[in-house]
Amino acid sequence: MRIERKIILSNIFNIGLIFLIGFFALQDLDLMLTKLRFVEIADDLNESFLEMRLSEKNYLIYHKQEFLAEVKEKVESTGKLLESAGPDIIRAIGRENFELLKSHLKSYAGVVEEVRDKSVSNKYLELRFRTEGKKLREFSSTITRLERKGVNSIISSSKTILVYSFVAIVLCAVFVSHFISQKIVRSLREIETLAKSISLGNFNKIEGHIPGDEFGSVMTAINSMSDELRNREDALIQSKKLASLGILTAGVAHELTNPLNNISMIAQTYTELYDSLDRVQRIEFMWKVEHETERIKEIIKNLLDFSKPKQANLKETDINTVLERTLKLLQNMLDISNIETKVDMERNLPNVFVDAYQIQQVLVNLVTNAVQTMQPGGTLYMSTRNGSGGDSVEIKVMDTGKGIPSELLQHIFDPFFSTKGEKGTGLGLFVSYGIIKNHRGDIRVESKVGVGTTFTIELPVYKGRT
Known about the structure:
The protein has 466 residues and is an alpha+beta fold. The protein has 3 domains: 3-178, Alpha-catenin/vinculin-like (Four Helix Bundle (Hemerythrin (Met), subunit A), Up-down Bundle); 236-307, Helix Hairpins (Orthogonal Bundle), CATH 1.10.287; 315-460, 2-Layer Sandwich (Heat Shock Protein 90), CATH 3.30.565. It contains 10 helices and 7 strands. The protein has helices at 3-62, 65-84, 86-117, 123-199, 214-273, 279-307, 319-336, 356-374, 406-409, 428-438; strands at residues 315-317, 339-345, 352-354, 378-386, 392-399, 442-448, 452-460. It is rod-shaped, with a radius of gyration of 55 Å.
């Protein structure tokens, strides 16, 4: 079910609950108004009964017919009031009490008629007159008091019902809102997790049940996008492999061409001059062939070292120690080249898990490149420090050389790419890049022409064997 429909249904449910509570509240209100109406009528009746009793008392004291006529008049007017307000009175006190009230009034009216018919005083009849009037007055007062109490009870119960109903509506609204919001938040978290995974290059998919709401549509779209990105990544990787293969092939062809051409020329010359050469000269020609062959072997060895790197001898290592050993190894070259060295090593760095000799090989290559680009003279800056987040250690190698143009930086780690012309093989940084990546680290380069170049190596902190 779509979220919009769920929200609409929850609103309908809450509105229906409000209408239901309103209906019962209106029922109580109607009953309360009916009873209040009766109380008003009862007040009029009690006032009439009070006037009857007053006229009755005057008659019993003075025995004048005019007081008896007043009683009869009040009885008749009260009877008419009961008839006209009968339905309201019945709804308030019930038919039984209504008939009982009429019966008391009728009895009282009968006694009044008997008293009128007697010309002389009759003690028994006067007693009945007084007793029936008292019963009528007390019955009316009792009913009125009970109805007032009933009105208060209805008001109190209505208040209680409204309070509980309000709490029930709030709880239902909170429950429904929490239920819907939890589903929304759960779906958003799954989408967020997948989005972060995709941003890190892990093209996973949302597994399990996918809801049929708007978030389900988004999840399905993201799953499709993940599949498409994975397919495109595979195609891109394949394309990069082909491009790298092309670069590698061209580089190999270029690097091997020179020594092969030299061997060919030496062989041709050797053949032409063979008869005129003495033994020493012939050996010299063969030595040249061997030298060119060694060049070819070195090129192939470097390629094999990168494509099939030797098993690294990983150990828990202090990176500052590796840097100090590298500087001692290269100190003579730095002095001869008139290079000033400035070193800033942060103390108490966490250890790394590396092959110290391979990392030293990388540092030797970077320092050698820096020296070559700065000759004659210059300043070499080397530093170590904690990486961002504390999960890595950074090594920086910075020179004050001529720098590398920005358009060449993207190719700096490509095989057989060199900024040194014929003096470089273009394999040093290529191999260094492979070593760092095999250590699950990263190597970056920044350069500005006329200012210098900075290489940054980032190696993960050793957290124990897993």
